[in-house]
Amino acid sequence: MNKPLFLLLISLIILTGQAYSQGVGIGTTTPDASAALDVSGTSKGLLIPRMSATDRQSIIDPAVGLMVFDSTNNAFYYFNGMGWLELLAGSVDKITDADGDTRIRVEANPDEDVIRFEVKGIEVGKVDSTGRWDMVGPDDLLSIGGGNTGTGGAGNTFLGNAAGLPHVNGNSNTAVGRSAMRMHNSGENNTTLGGYSLFSNAVGSGNTAIGVSAGYNALGDGNVFLGKSAGYAETGSNKLYIENTGVDSSEALIYGEFDSNWVRINGRLTPTQGITDADGDTKILVEESTNDNVIRFVNTGTEYFNMDHGVLNITNTGNSVFVGNEAGLNDDRTNNQNTFVGSSAGTSNTTGENNTSLGYEALYANTTGFRNTAIGYFSLGHLLTGSSNTTLGWWAGKEIITGTSNTCIGSDALSQNISGTENTALGESAGKNNQSGVQNTFLGAGAGKDNEGDGNVFIGFRAGWSEVGSHKLYISNTLSSMPLIYGEFDNSLLRINGTLNINEAYDFPMVDGTSGQILYSDGAGQVNWGDQTIDTDDQNLSLSGSTLSISEGNSIDISSVNTIQSILQDADGDTRIRIEANPDEDVIRFEVKGVEVGKVDSTGRWDMVGPDDLLSIGGGNTGTGGGGNTFLGNAAGLPHVSGNSNTAVGRSAMRMHNSGENNTILGGFSLFSNAVGSGNTAIGVSAGYNALGDGNVFLGKSAGFDETGSNKLYISNSEAGNSDALIYGEFDNQLLRVNGTLEQNGTLEVNGSLTATEGITVSGADAVFNSSVIANQPVSINGTLTASSPIYSTSSINANGSLIANGPLTANNTLNANSTFNANGSVKLGSNGTSFSGIITSTVSINLPNIGSNSTYIQDVTVTNATTSSVVMVSPGSDLPGAIIIGWARVVSANTVRIMWRNTGSNSQDPGSTSYRFTIFNF
Question: What's the CA dihedral at 19, 23, 29, 31 to 10 degrees?
């Protein structure tokens, strides 16, 4: 049919229909009264206009209700007055915009069961049957209420109103919380959690901020801020703040600098129940038994130290005492009875016995030598096997290797001697360069400095300095080859290079007379040479054998006359030096006013202690009472009046002491002002200078300088007070505080209670707490912390390493477990929370029967360790039928959980078999 004819036919049909006021029928003569056009047929359908999506969208001013078939999308479309909509029939698998590039699709591929979200042709999210939402678009961007998508960068996540605005570029940023990283522009690798956290940082990278307003004004890189407003105004880089206010670095609870490997606790660390390692064999015990009040130090199961009421006892070291880094390191700990005090003092000693060293590397190399005493920096430092040496002073006898029975007192005294024996050197550089000489005596600074011989006696300042020979006597006070007194022991020669005066009565002439002249006195204090005159009354005195005869007189046998003087004494005989008090005892004794105050025997032992066991060299008065005192040093112990068992070594040590007892002092001006205090221990120059109390322990230069109380511990090298000293303690309160960084590179074990007001940081190896732990500031765990008793933290606990709690665990703030968190005891979260003893998880496969409409099904399941006070959570491993829900679950008896399913639909449902994950919280 041609087109004009067809149009005419259609017009006639329409006119006819209008004329009869009824619809038009095609294939039927009785069109339905409600239809304007009724098309009927059993073998053919209605074909409406077909066109591409481009043609459809090109229709000018389409009428509302206009319908076409879009051959591009294979779908019917109709125009609703606003735009073209796809006509969906039956099951709809997508919702799309007019041009099809923005849509939600139920399935992109047959039966994949994935809902996909596409915007402008780009998939920006999807969710699958596991319930997993993948909402990240191009460049891995996830932004919910957050920043712009930007013009560059990838892997960013912004969650929260205005989070990450006005992000332009930069990779791998995560900002969660309202206005988190609000000013961010281009920084990378930042992680923030909390409203307004890292608010102002526009270009910084590598920052981590957790907490509301944490790092609010921070601008730098590599910072870590933990807690509300932590690091609020910090503008630098590589800083650590753990705090819950906006305070600065000097007040933040924990402050650190990553680029300096430095952390500071601006608070208080107070252990009260001991410190232990992971296996419990190395520890510090505050009390071994109830109320014994003894601090014990145990290493690999052996107790080596204990502190009892101000007394430090050293045990299980073979009656030896080692104090200082590597002091006595290699001692075999048998009954050697050694005392090594100082860094590396006696380090190499193995089996040597009865040695005493005090000072840096004093007696460092000794291995088997015995009965040596070395006091001073590197004193006897190279001694290997020599014995019975005594040295006092810097480098005193430092090169002696095999020498024995040497005594060196003074800086550099006998310092170059290697194998010499029985030498005595007293004074700075006395006998310094004598390497192998024996039985020399050098008394005085520089005496015999360059001597190389044996058997010399040099007395006085620089006496015999340049004399290299042996068996010489020099008594002088200058460096001179013509000393005041010179002698040669091997030649029985004594020479006086000056005037010889006898008892202030007369002087001997200094020049020799002529042959035959004799010495005579003029009776007025002059002795001169003169010619001999013969008087007829003169008698000849002659000696023949042991018979002494006078001419024209008698003779006498002098064989039994003692010609040796054994006593040097004063006029009344009560002050004297005796060579032998008893026949052949070979002891020199010193008596003053009838009292023996010292003696020396053939072993070289000097016993210089007088009545009441007093030893005072340059020190205090003998006093009017007390015994067992030792004062060594200029004005040490002055003006001591009474008091027992005091030891003061050093210039003006205990200078104001009067009557206190049991004080032990080492160091110039140490415990200077303490007059009546007792039981104090002070080691170091000016340690406890102004201290007045009792039972104090001060270690280090100026430690406890102004402490006036009692029972205090200071370990410091300055005049710092109790809040600044590196280590401060109170023995009567069982308190120990570290005012600085406590670095734990080995294992830290606490067997007593630990109260840490400035937080606890376990950075290196393991920490084991066998008693309760109370932390008033955050606990940070980078290693492994094992606690066998309760842990109570009023702040947060951050476990970057493993936290194993065998007792109750209480955290009133955040508990971050970035690694293993094992709570074998009870756990309490929040100050008002309820403690629970464990979390149990179990997976059980359950095959449910058919459940009728509006019906329930109940079944019991075995979950080991579940208790009736537990809380139960149940999660199915796969989707349940739409009308099936889990109504409730509870523990009805030990190890038994009862669960109820309900069919809320109008048709019966068969859930079939699936796995269920049970999570049990035991309370």
Answer: -150
Angle at 262 between CA 259 and CA 267, to 5 degrees: 140
Task: List, as own/partner pairs, every contact residues 376-383 make where C-beta atoms lie below 8 angstroms and the sequence separation is at least 24, other chains included.
Answer: 376/411, 379/408
d(CA 363, CA 379): 6
Which pLDDT band, with edges at 50, 70 and 90, does 276 fall under? Answer: confident
**Cα–Cα nearest to 215, from 189, 202, 234:** 234
CA-based nearest residue to 814, from 782, 777, 773, 854: 777
Q: Which residues contact 438 (CB under 8 A, 6 or more apart)?
A: 420, 421, 422, 423, 454, 455
Q: Average pLDDT, whole number, for the chain? A: 82
Tokens of 189: 């690798």
Tell me how far apart the alpha carbons of residues 182 and 176 are, in angstroms, rounded to a whole number. 11
What pLDDT score was predicted for residue 923?
75
Q: Is 104 helix (H, G, I), strand (E, B) or coil?
A: strand
- The two tokens of residue 774 are 């109370």
For 489-535, write each residue's pLDDT tens digit.
999 888 888 877 777 667 777 777 788 788 777 777 677 788 766 55
808 preceded by cis ω (within 30°)? no
Cα end-to-end distance, the chain, whole Å: 90
Task: Scan for tokens 């290997």, then name that residue.
Answer: 384
Take residue 802 and report the two structure tokens written for it: 């493993």
Which of 429, 424, 460, 434 is CA-nearest to residue 446? Answer: 429
Q: Which among 667, 664, 673 has a CA at the least distance from the CA of 696?
A: 664
Whole-structure pTM value: 0.35
Q: Tell me how far the alpha carbon of residue 5 is from its chain's centroid.
A: 105
Q: Which pair of tokens denotes residue 248?
A: 């600065």
Q: Can you tell me the distance from the alpha carbon of 453 to that of 474, in angstroms, rounded to the nearest whole number?
A: 14
Q: Could you give the 3-state DSSP secondary structure of residue 822?
A: strand
Query: How far apart are alpha carbons 196 and 726 in whole angstroms?
Result: 38
Rounded CA separation 65/82 (Å): 11
- What number of CA atoms fall less than 13 Å from residue 466's CA on the CB side? 6
pLDDT at 7 over 60: no
Nearest alpha-carbon partner for 811 in 830, 787, 825: 830
Tokens of 711: 């029972």
Q: Looking at 18-32, 42-56, 167-181, 553-567, which range is the least confident one?
A: 553-567
**Residue 779 near residue 796, CB atoms below 8 Å:** yes
- In terms of Cβ atoms closer than 10 Å to its own Cβ (0-12, 13-18, 19+), residue 277 is buried
CB-side exposure of 395: number of CA atoms within 13 Å?
Answer: 15
**pLDDT, mean of residues 313-325:** 88
Assess contact for 356 and 337: CB atoms under 8 A. Answer: no
Continuous segment of H or E residues that includes residue 13: helix 3-19
Place of tokens 């003998």: 622
| Residues whose CB is less than 8 angstroms from the CB of residue 464 and which lie 6 or more positions away in sequence, other chains included | 442, 447, 448, 451, 456, 458, 472, 474, 476, 483
Question: What are the phi and psi torsion angles at 157 (to 5°)?
Answer: -130, 120
- Total number of residues shown for the chain: 923
Nearest in space to 390 (alpha carbons), one of 419, 422, 365: 422
Query: How far is the C-alpha of 234 from the C-alpha of 189, rounded, in Å?
Result: 19
Nearest to 824 by CA among 841, 807, 803: 807
pLDDT, greater one: 679 or 138:
679
Q: Which residues contact 387 (CB under 8 A, 6 or more apart)?
A: 369, 370, 371, 372, 404, 405
Per-residue confidence (pLDDT) for residue 595, from 0 to 100? 81
Concatenate the DSSP letters of all residues of 236-291 into one string: SSSEEEE-SS---TTTSSEEEEGGGTEEEESS--EEEEEEE-TTSSSEEES-SSTT
Beta-strand relationship, 485-488 and 493-496: antiparallel
Position 347 confidence tier, pLDDT thresholds 50, 70, 90: very high
